Amino acid sequence: MKVLIVTAHPRQDSFTQTLAQRFAEGVNASGHDVEIADLYGEGFNPVVSIQELEGWKEGQVSPEIRAWQERIKHSDALVLAYPVWWSTPPAILSGWLQRVLTQGFAFQHIAGRTEGLLKLRAQMLVNVGSRQREDVNLAALYLEPLIGVLTYCGMEILPTQANWGIYAGADPALLRVHLDRAFDNGMQFFLESNHKNMV
Ligand SMILES: Cc1cc2nc3c(=O)[nH]c(=O)nc-3n(C[C@H](O)[C@H](O)[C@H](O)COP(=O)(O)O)c2cc1C
């Protein structure tokens, strides 16, 4: 089995990238494969163009987006690792979802119904600056829109790993706790017992 981890952070030494790496090590330790797709590192352009929007009406997708869709098709799971920026994922990740999860690839409309086409397991690794877990209603504020998009496209969602207290001068012991959780989540990602936790 293989996980595609999509990361969205401009700094290579960010906690987001470190956490994704640790999660990947957990997946590898469980005997499965990982590909990390660093959206900034790959220079992904998140802006939907008018040509692209017009092309979608005709069922056309650019070679660049087709290549991303192939990477998803060759994966069994999708993990999104990102910081919360003003309650949303960074623009580069929102744009990636907008451009890559196209009709006909991610979902289709049949006889007045919508069918999700991506039979993948998915999980989010989300960093927030808030100092206490209790400070924010993570699910309502930050996660529900994205979970809605992924389930619409057919994915089964594992509980989000929310990492709170990530800011300059954060408690190193807390960072270690989050990194250990990432490794464990990676290790357990493909366990069948994880099914019972899906939303
Ligand atoms: C533009 C911007 C907006 C942010 N908005 C929020 C927010 O809405 N809620 C929050 O808890 N933290 C917010 N933060 C803090 C980041 O979530 C935090 O710095 C990040 O998780 C740290 O992880 P990193 O090292 O991977 O960047 C924001 C940070 C930036 C730069």
How would you describe what is shown here?
There is one protein chain. With 199 residues, the protein is α/β, with parallel strands linked by helices. It has a single domain, classed as Rossmann fold. It contains 6 helices and 8 strands. Strands 1, 2, 3, 6, 7 and 8 form a 6-stranded parallel sheet that branches. The longest helix is centred in the last third of the chain and has 17 residues. The chain is globular. It starts with a strand and ends in an 11-residue tail after the last helix. The site of flavin mononucleotide (FMN) has 15 residues, from helix 1.
Key descriptive features of the protein:
6 helices, Rossmann fold, single chain, binds flavin mononucleotide, 6-stranded parallel β-sheet, alpha/beta, 8 strands, 199 residues
